[in-house]
């Protein structure tokens, strides 16, 4: 633990260009999931603070939306530079408050910076259209307009990048923002907002409210000045927000849970498949919505694949993310850890075999943290919880298959539809899989398919709308049709 990662003064919220304490005077403690020790303390707000931030954002919208795209772009470029310059510090804070390995945290920060650059550029490409009229004395013009005040709610698993992916396109489009980060990881969001302040954004354009989710969320939903809810988190909360947004017909974009299948065919390059699985399963300790949650391996290669996987797992170093040799960090909290252990126990009780791992790590350096051994379970069947529910932990459940059509049907048999992965060296099969899997993201021989310019989002109950690339801009723009009579 480095001293730099322990923040001792009470951090405040950022509303209308000022660092302010909550109306209630309450605070929130932030703890390290690696050691349980306190790493920070922040002022915790409620609906009153949210209302002030929304008012500030609504006021700031008048001028911000009228700036030229080139002017808005300059602020985003500045923020891009600042985030890159402060990469190591931001990464240290992420690792301290949510536990991920420092190498991954640095990658996350660079990903966030990349969003600020991408949307600095994309801001300038919000084009309209003219459409041929069917009557001679009329002309049709179509223009794009920012939707207005955006309320963004982000989760703890990518505490900086999830913020960047929402605020960068929103600001580029000309919207103003009120952000509520997850209560377990507000420190990295606060540091990002210090950089936002340094970048010189006009007051009220970007606001930060921290605290209990329900009262703040309620204000976001009920306040008519908020025109758009941008959310990443659980399907349960996503549904609540969608329902609440209906009352004032706010736009919503929702990035929700997933239950990704990962299919290894008999003609796959098994070493590449093991590497891909590592990317998709163990990054962030398995706490990503695009994480593999069902591994289907062809019967003829299941033994060879499992042996390679287990051998690789045995070399992995689990530990505090702040140690530079750590490859897999702890889980976010006790509740998250217990869910993972319950999934393992349920599978074991219903006849699955634990090929490696399977337990909480509790000795020595692990004593005070929320660590789970990287685990492989074979013989997984449909009646097990792990087959249907999102595990959010470092557990690989292996299911054996023999037939292509049957495995596609099984892979699609879920309420989720975020990411799916396929390993095969047969070109025709690659195309068949790309077409038949009902998922918003399909990685073909690729276990880490996210990029800033690509659309990210799910089918079915995994969400609505897309982040990434030019697709995200549409989420923050209204379309206006102007009819000119001549
Ligand atoms: P997770 O289970 O990964 O923590 P959640 O969906 O509970 O996922 O949390 C994601 C984000 O949603 C967090 O910022 C959390 O504070 C927020 N959140 C949780 N419940 C609500 C709610 N009722 N209204 C608004 N935001 C909420």
TrEMBL record:
PANTHER family membership: SUCCINATE-SEMIALDEHYDE DEHYDROGENASE, MITOCHONDRIAL
SUPFAM superfamilies: ALDH-like (SSF53720)
An individual GO BP term: gamma-aminobutyric acid catabolic process
Residues in Aldehyde dehydrogenase domain copies: 19-482
Keywords: Oxidoreductase
Name of the protein in question: Aldehyde dehydrogenase
Family: Belongs to the aldehyde dehydrogenase family.
InterPro entries linked to this entry: Ald_DH/histidinol_DH, Ald_DH_C, Ald_DH_CS_CYS, Ald_DH_N, Aldehyde_DH_dom, Aldehyde_DH_NAD(P), Aldehyde_DH_Superfamily
């Amino acid at each position: 633990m480095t001293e730099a990662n322990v923040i001792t003064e009470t951090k405040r919220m950022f509303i209308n260009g000022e660092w302010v304490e909550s109306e209630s005077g309450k605070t929130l403690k932030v703890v390290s999931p690696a050691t349980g020790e306190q790493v920070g303390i922040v002022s915790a707000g409620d609906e009153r603070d949210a209302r002030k931030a929304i008012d500030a954002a609504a006021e700031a919208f008048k001028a911000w939306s009228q700036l030229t795209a080139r002017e808005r772009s300059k602020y985003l470029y500045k923020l891009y530079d600042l985030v890159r310059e402060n990469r190591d510090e931001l990464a240290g804070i992420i690792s301290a408050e949510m536990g991920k390995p420092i190498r991954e945290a640095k990658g996350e920060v660079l990903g966030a910076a990349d969003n600020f650059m991408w949307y600095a550029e994309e801001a300038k490409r919000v084009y309209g259209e003219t459409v041929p009229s069917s009557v001679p004395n009329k002309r049709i013009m179509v223009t794009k307009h920012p939707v207005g005040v955006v309320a963004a709610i982000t989760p703890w698993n990518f505490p900086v990048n999830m913020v960047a992916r929402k605020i960068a396109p929103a600001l580029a489009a000309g919207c103003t923002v009120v952000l509520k980060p997850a209560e377990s990881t507000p420190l990295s969001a606060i540091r990002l907002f210090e950089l936002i302040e340094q970048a010189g954004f006009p007051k009220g354009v970007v606001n930060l409210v921290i605290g209990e989710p329900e009262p703040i969320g309620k204000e976001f939903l009920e306040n008519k000045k908020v025109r758009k809810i941008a959310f990443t988190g659980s399907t349960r909360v996503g549904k609540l927000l969608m329902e609440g947004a209906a009352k004032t017909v706010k736009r919503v974009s929702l990035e929700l849970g997933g239950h990704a299948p990962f299919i290894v065919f008999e003609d796959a390059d098994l070493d590449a498949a093991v590497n891909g699985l590592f990317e998709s399963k163990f990054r962030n300790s398995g706490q990503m919505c695009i994480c593999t949650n069902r591994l289907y391996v062809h019967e003829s290669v299941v033994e060879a694949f499992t042996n390679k996987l287990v051998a690789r797992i045995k070399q992995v170093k689990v530990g505090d993310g702040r140690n530079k040799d750590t490859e897999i960090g702890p889980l976010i909290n006790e509740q998250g850890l217990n869910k993972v252990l319950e999934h393992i126990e349920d599978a074991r009780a219903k006849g699955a075999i634990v090929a490696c791992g399977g337990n909480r790590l509790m000795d020595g350096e692990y004593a005070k943290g929320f660590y789970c051994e990287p685990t492989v379970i074979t013989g997984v069947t449909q009646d097990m919880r792990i087959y249907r529910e999102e595990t959010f932990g470092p557990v690989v459940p292996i299911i054996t298959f023999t037939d292509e059509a049957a495995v596609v049907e099984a892979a699609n048999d879920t309420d989720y539809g975020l990411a799916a992965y396929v390993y095969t060296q047969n070109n025709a099969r690659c195309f068949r899989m790309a077409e038949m899997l009902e998922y918003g993201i399909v990685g073909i021989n690729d276990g880490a398919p996210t990029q800033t310019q690509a659309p990210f989002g799910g089918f079915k109950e995994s969400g609505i709308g897309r982040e990434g690339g030019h697709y995200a801009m549409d989420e923050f723009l209204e379309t206006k049709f102007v009819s000119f009579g001549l």
